[in-house]
What we know:
Largest sheet: none
Helix content: over 70%
Number of domains: 1
Oligomer: single chain
Distance between the termini: 10 Å
Low-confidence stretches: none
Amino acid sequence: MTAVISLLVIITLSVLATRIGAIAFVHTGISKEAAKFQARSAYLGVGFTTRESEMVVNDPVRRKILTILIFLGNAGIITTISSVIFKI
């Protein structure tokens, strides 16, 4: 039961992190839809070579947000795997 609860907490925190990242991207001037997509892409560690990606990488503030999202995504994956393994 605790494995399910910890997994739900991790998923909730993941969604929260991507939403905060998307809001931060919007505040830097990216459209809302592009910001959501870029935040999810960064969090999940998947890259797309588009003009939208270039807009994110070429700006220092956006690059900082991107770096934080990538770090949180990797930490979230490690936490998810470890919580499932240790609860079994």
